[in-house]
Amino acid sequence: MDQPPYKDALLRKRTEILGTGGIKPLQASMENNTRQGDIALKLKATDAKILQAIEEALWRIDKGTYGLCRDCGEPIAPARLNAIPWTRVCISCKEKQSS
Ligand SMILES: [Zn+2]
Question: Among 9, 31, 36, 73, which lies 20 to 30 A Cα-Cα from 48?
Answer without folding.
Answer: 73
